[in-house]
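Table S2 (continued). Query chain:
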Amino acid sequence: MHADSTILRVQVVGGETTVDRDTWSLIPPLRWRVVRRRAKSYVAADRRRPETGVCYLHRLIVTAKRGDVVQHINGDGLDNRRCNLRVASLGFTVDPVTGCWNWTGCLNANGYAVRAVKDGSRLVHRRHYEEKYGRVPRGMHLDHVCRNHRCVNPDHLEVVTPAENSRRGVMAHLTAHRAMALRFEVCQKVTGGMSVRAACDEASARYGISIHTADSVVRGRTWKDVGGPLVGRDYYGVWHREPDGSIRCRGTAR
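Corresponding output:
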């Protein structure tokens, strides 16, 4: 242990760490060691109760609460002086209007809040939900009722089937009126000589949906209760749903 004015360089298993002299005197005498996490080194020790997990020195120094994100300002995980540690609250900010807990950390490619763990990353909203309501049943999805993907408020989440989750995602971009408009738009292009795929490709970009979703809408596989012309599987013409519920095609077979 080496003293340098008000700071100490303390030898731990696997390396050394820098701490404030007055802080180190308050640290419990655990078997502190250097650990690697997300390509960075930190000082940690096993808790007296193994089931409670690992105790990180920097979190202990600032008395971080569960969910708090503690950052090393200079990026050195072994520099545990108080002036180098910053608590980033709970990792989210609360929207006073919507009640959403907007995550301030990393987001994945789909805009969902993620946090790095030992073997990869974990969805934050799922962790918050399971902490409050228990594990999500196998094969089920969590749907953001608020339609805000970065929200981690467990009260804004609902357990649904994968099919229902997909339908709700489409509903966020499509309404009955827009689905009908999509059918008329695609059918008009198809009767003009454009292929169904090309017409769906153009329409999907404008309506904010996938080509597969647009194709399902114009062929009547989804939004079955919405009127409008349908594109036939074997025709480049237009299928019409009659008042009695029957479907008739007007077009040229290819």
